[in-house]
Every structure is written in C-alpha cells, then in structure tokens.
Amino acid sequence: MRRFLFAIPVNVYRQICILLATLLAVTLVIAQDASDSVAPEFSSGTTKQQLVHGKNSMVSSANPYASRAGSDILKRGGNAVDAMVTIQLVLGLVEPQSSGIGGGAFLVYFDAKNKRLTTFDGRETAPLAATPEMFLDDNGQPASFFDVVVGGRSVGTPGTIKLLFDIHKRYGQLPWEDLLKPAIQLAREGFEVTNRLNALITYAAESLYQYPETRDYFLSEEGVPLFPGTVLKNTAYANTLEMISEGGADAFYGGRIAEAIVHRVQNSEGTPGRLTLEDLSRYEIVERPPVCLAYRGYDVCGMGPPSSGALTVGQILGLIEHHNIGEWGPRSPKSWLAIGDASRLAYADRGRYMADSDFVDMPKGLLNKDYLTERSKLLSGESALPSGSVQPGNPPFDHAHLWADDKSTELPSTSHFSIVDSGGNVVSMTTTIENGFGSRLMVGGFLLNNELTDFSFVPEVDEKLVANRIEPGKRPRSSMAPTIVMKDGNPVLTVGSPGGSRIIGYVAKTLIAWIDWDMNIQQAIELPHLINRFGEYDLEKGTAAESFEEPLERLGYVTNIRDLNSGLHGIEINPDGLQGGADPRREGLVIGQ
Ligand code: GLU
Questions:
Q1: Which pLDDT does position 48 carry in this prediction?
Q2: How do residues 333-392 score in pLDDT, each as one tens digit?
C-alpha cells in the first residue's frame, strides 16, 4: 500500500477521505429522505411509492434489480419459487450488506395446487463446537456486542443456499441453472452502487477495512467507500454461483466453497470462529407447521420457533383484539396505548420463553385464546402500564420450566420480499446476514453472517438457564416475521420486514392498519411507525408519529423520536387482482403483470 500521499500519513488520509465520504453520504441520504418523507396526513402519506396493480402475478422486493430479475422469471413461465431463487441471488449481489448466500432465511409458502400453507426454516445453526459461554469475556461478563459481531466467532452455518435449492427441487418449474443466470450476468457486467449502499459502507468503513477481501471490494486502497453510481462487478460471486449452478447445494456445503468458508472463519484475526466442514455437510432445512392466530375473521400465519416473529406478532394482535382499535383509528392515542402495552407484554413473553424449540421446551399456549384474554385485562387502564407490571405471563406449558429473561441484542439489516405467481402460489421470505455486512468476513464474493449474536450472550441468570443460550447445532432466536394472512383457507396478504427486533412491531402495525383501519397495503406500509418493545415508545422521526410525543408522555410513556428503518414489502390478493406495496424508507420496487 502507498504509505504517503501528498506527504500525509495514509491513516490520516484515510480518516479525511472517510469524513468527506460521510459528509457526501449524509447529504445524499438527507436529500433522499426529504423527497421521501411521509406526509403529515397520518392515514396516507404521499411519497414516491404508489400502490401497484397487477392481474396475474407480482413481486415486491427491496431492490429494483432484484424485482426486475424476479419479474422476468415469472414472465418466462417460472413460478413464485423460481422467482424467489433469482431474487435472493440478485439481492445478495446488490444489497450485500443485508442478505445473501452467507446467511439464513425463513420462508412462509402457500402451495396453491395443494391449498397448503407451510414454512421452511433456513436459519443458521451454531457450530458443533459452540459452547454456552463462548460470548463471555475472561471475567465471565458478556463481551461487547461489536467485538463479537466482527470476525469469525459470530458465524453460523449458512442456510440460504440449501433453502433455495431444496425448495426449488420440490416446487420449482424452470431449470435451476436458468435461475442463477441473471445474478451471474449482473455480477459480471456490474451494477450501480446506490446512495443507500454508499451510506452503509461509509457507516461500517472502519470494520470493513479490517479484512482484505472486504476492504478490496467495498473501499478504495485509501479506505474511501464506493461512490454512488460506481459500476461494481463481483467476479468472485459470479464464479461461486457458477459452481452452485453446476453442482447444486452440494457445491456449497462441501468442496472448494465450504473449505474457503471454514478457512476464513477459523483464521479470522483476533476472533477465530469454530465452524467446521462437518457443520456445513450436516446442515438441513426444516419444514415446520405455520404458527397462526385467528384475528377478526382472518388467520394471521407466519414463522414459528426458532423465530419469535409469528408468536409475538400473534400475541400483540390477540391482546388488542378485545379493544375497539378499528373504531378509534390511527389518530387516537388510545389505539397506541393498547398497541404499545400489548407489545410490551408480548415482548416480555418473547424474552423469557421463545427460542429454538428443537432444543428447549416452549409453552404450547403462547397464542392460547384464554391465556391472551386473561392477559389482555392488564390493558384496561387509562394510562401506560407501570414497568413493574410488565412481566412475562404464565402461558400453558406441557412441561414445567422456568427460564430466565433473555439479554440478546439485535441491530438492523435484512431484507423481505413477497411474490405471488399466476398459479396463486405465494412466497413470503425474510432473509438476513444479521448485522449490516454480517461478520464483515467475505469469501467467494459474498459476506458471512454474524447470526450467532442473536443468541443470548449470557447462558444463565440467577442459576436459571436462558432459553436462547448458545448450544451446539441450535438455531439462534430470530424476530423475522414473514407473514401470510389467510381468509377461508386462501391467502389474501403477504408481508414482512427487516428491522431487528422491531420487525415484530413493523409487521404488527402494518397488519393492524390493513385489517382494522382498512388501508391498502401501500398506505399500511407507509403509515408512520410507533414501536414499543421494552417500555420506551419509539416514534418515527420526520413523520406525523412525532405529534404523539406529548399525548403518549401524558399517558406515562417515555418517548424517543428516531429513524425507524423498516423495509416492508407486501402484496394483497383480491378476487379481481393483486395490489402491491413497497416501503418508501428503502429502495424497493413492486412489479405487477
Ligand atoms: N438477525 C435478526 C433476526 O433474525 C434480523 C436482523 C435485522 O432485521 O436487522 O431477527
């Protein structure tokens, strides 16, 4: 590397460049946000996104390259599962910070031919050599979150390729190789770096700079992030996909790609990880029954454990069902009092009980109507619940078990896409490498996840075990909530979002807006966010949600005005066609045909 430029030491030069790039990125993002801002009308914002109509099929994803590629597959006679493969592989290229083949995903799928709703778990697993104490420091205290995120220690066995391959084998229509071609071609020809990608690289520049492959791909030699508009090629990714095109999932879970992953993880400077070839070769997708809650004439269905998504969304809805939210509407603080406290109670149960149910006994009754009805009595007051009374409940258990509350942290990245094909098949998929840019380790043109930081760093509290503690082969608890809403056995809505543990709040709000407040999917997505997880009420900055600061404080909440970066992508299925929405907070695109 050049040591000096204009006689300035390279590290100082790098800092200056990062500062300038940060200023540019912030300016671009502010400019973009200003034009995107949600109008002060609370029920329907006017933004660059419009409700999109389609007759036969539709895709909604977080990136135009991905939506176009998926839509082309549908045009060529592919089905929703075929389009899913292509969209995911293109997202891994153009939105590398959010999801990809180095990560994991959950799929909620409606198979139209058999009129069957099912779910597939492609979540990462902890290495067989993992131990419950591996994220504690030498003093037995939890290590700092980012010290664990960055490097090999946080990498779980990736599930995404196996999910795509197995589900395609079972339901796909077009040949596997054809579905990989769009991503391979785009990786070779290059794609344009967006403002968002530039801003995110800038934000993570320091950590990306640590590893040669990541540094060379995202930064210049001096550490300057890729500028917006740069045409970025990824030959290594194209080569990886070509191997997977020929060899299928086996080419990823064994052979050269697997060896490269394991080598990178085990040799990560400072924080080597414990992933082995055996972890990769043993990886399996798990089909699981959907978790559904009957809500106001609909069945709201989604992903069960190891995700807490459907259970926690379901609890929020089940708790507010006894309130007249529909009549009160989105402008009434009463609605947000009920939603806010219902969310706090649901998150309390989530923290105590929810984890990978293949490893820990979970109460069977978390969505039990009697349990939720009884618990909803806590919501009958005129002001916010005092924090002391927001405790986990006692849902019906099969076996007696007392878990300690969980302390795991989640920070946002991730992507959600929805697809409906002309045969009526529906894909609702949320996909992630966990933190933005995952572990920052890159191999074969893709980033490796840091999903293991979704486990509790602390395995036990006061001699009680934490349900979501790390164990060999276990899947870390997720908040991802890919959802399909059913009516009389048919799908009527698909939606989901990124956003760490706020995913649950984003999805619940969108469902309430669509079901109780009769908004279309675009309006429901755009409706400003008011999210309460653990007591503090987050109000979306720059939107009409800010006007709830005073009324909610009067009700006893502490409020916090902040950016709330969801990425909701959804499709409504009506008797006369499809309507799709994309989140104006991201760069998504809906295409209907
Ligand atoms: N890893 C998180 C989860 O599985 C998602 C991360 C995010 O959305 O930012 O819940």
A1: 61
A2: 999 999 999 999 999 999 899 999 999 988 889 999 999 999 999 998 888 988 777 888
Count other C-beta atoms under 10 Å from residue 386's C-beta.
10
Q: Largest Cα–Cα distance in the chain? A: 73
Position 40 scores a pLDDT of 31
Average pLDDT over residues 384-412: 65
- Residue whose CA lies nearest to ligand 1 atom number 4: 478
Q: Nearest C-alpha to atom 3 of ligand 1 is from which residue?
A: 478
Question: In degrees, to the nearest 5, what angle opens at C-alpha 504 toward C-alphas 501 and 510?
Answer: 140
C-alpha 413 – ligand 1 centre gap (Å): 7
Determine the average pLDDT of the residues in 97-102. Answer: 97
Q: Which domains are assigned to the chain?
A: 37-190+233-593 (3.60.20.40)
Q: What is the CB < 6 Å shell around ligand 1?
A: 410, 412-414, 432, 434, 454, 478-480, 498-500, 503
DSSP secondary structure of 520-559: -HHHHHHSPPEEESSS-EEEETTSGGGGGHHHHHHTT--E
User: How far is the C-alpha of 536 from the C-alpha of 564, rounded, in Å?
Assistant: 14
pLDDT of residue 233: 98
Cα(485) to ligand 1 centroid in Å equals 21
At 29, is the pLDDT very low, low, confident or very high (cuts 50, 70, 90)?
Answer: very low
Nearest to 121 by CA among 285, 308, 312, 290: 285
Q: Rounded to the nearest whole angstrom, what is the distance from the C-alpha of residue 507 to the centroid of ligand 1?
A: 13
Ligand 1 atom at minimal distance to the Cα of residue 497:
8
Ligand 1 centroid – CA 105 distance (Å): 10
Q: Which residues are catalytic?
A: 414
From the alpha carbon of 451, which atom of ligand 1 is closest? 1
Residue 94, SS3 per DSSP:
helix
Q: What DSSP assignment string belongs to 455-506?
A: SBS-SEETTEEBTTB--TTPPPPB----EEEEETTEEEEEE---SGGGHHHH
Closest ligand 1 atom to residue 480 Cα is 10
| Res. 16: pLDDT tops 70 | no
Which tokens hold the place of 266?
């085990």
CA of 144 to the centre of ligand 1 (A): 18
φ and ψ of 225, to 5 deg? -65, 155
Q: Which atom of ligand 1 is nearest to the CA of 308?
A: 10
Q: Which of 410, 456, 568, 585, when mutated, tests ligand 1's pocket best, judged by the most ligand atoms within 8 Å of its CB?
A: 410
Give the pLDDT of residue 133: 95
Residue nearest to atom 1 of ligand 1 (CA): 434
Q: pLDDT band at residue 49, thresholds of 50, 70 and 90?
A: confident
Q: Name 185's Cβ contacts closer than 8 Å, sequence gap at least 6.
A: none
Q: What is the mean pLDDT of the chain?
A: 90
DSSP state of 72: H
* Residues 220-274 pLDDT 10s: 888 899 999 999 999 999 999 999 999 999 999 999 999 999 999 999 988 999 9
